[in-house]
Each structure stands twice: as structure tokens, then as C-alpha cells.
Amino acid sequence: MSTTLYDKEALSLFAGKFVQQLEPGDLVSLEGDLGVGKTFFVSKCLEALGVKGAITSPTFTIVNIYETEQAVRLLHGDLYRLDDVHELENTGVV
Questions:
Q1: Residue 92 pLDDT > 70, yes or no?
Q2: Which CA distances in Å does 90 have to 36, 74, 86, 87?
Q3: Cα(77)–Cα(31) distance, rounded to whole angstroms?
């Protein structure tokens, strides 16, 4: 799926609808330059899932893990800094 949105309000509305379509085990990949709104989108998805509190970019932690009210575990990762897929083992993801 490829979607183009032009403002934060549209992105917020899309995020709320988007998370309703997710099923257990789904993997979502967001691609784009720094500053285009990937973390903003993730924060709006998490808000729609009932997550409260700070939602930050995992630039330095590589992966942030959030538990939702629906007992859904959402992992938000910035994997561009990894040189090898085996480095994921050190993040606790696998």
C-alpha cells in the first residue's frame, strides 16, 4: 500500500483508520527521509490504540516497545542504523 497525505490532520485521521485494519502479526514498514512524519504517524497510531505518554523516535534506542490497552505489543524501530539483520538480536525483538 502506498498513501500520500499532505498535512498532519489528514495523517492523524488516516492513522486512526489504519490501526483498525491491523491484525496480529502484521508488519508495517514506513520509509521516508528524516523529518517526513514517520514517528508522528506512529504516535497517532499508538494514540488510536489507547497508548498514553511520550512516544519518541527510537533513533538512539533502535527499538521502542509499547503495550496497548488491547494487549497488542507494538514495536517502533529505526533499523536504518543496523548493518546486519543479526544485530536485531541485541534489541530484544527476536
A1: no
A2: 28, 18, 8, 6
A3: 11
pLDDT value at residue 44: 93
The candidate with the shortest Cα–Cα distance to 87, out of 79, 64, 74, is 79
**Cell representation of residue 45:** 497510531
pTM metric for this prediction: 0.77
pLDDT of 45-69, one tens digit each? Answer: 999 988 888 888 887 788 887 887 7
Cell numbers found for residue 4? 500520500
Question: b/e for 31-48, b at 16 or more Cβ within 10 A?
Answer: eeeeeeebbbbbbbbbeb
The full length of the chain comes to 94
Q: Residue 30: what residue type?
A: L
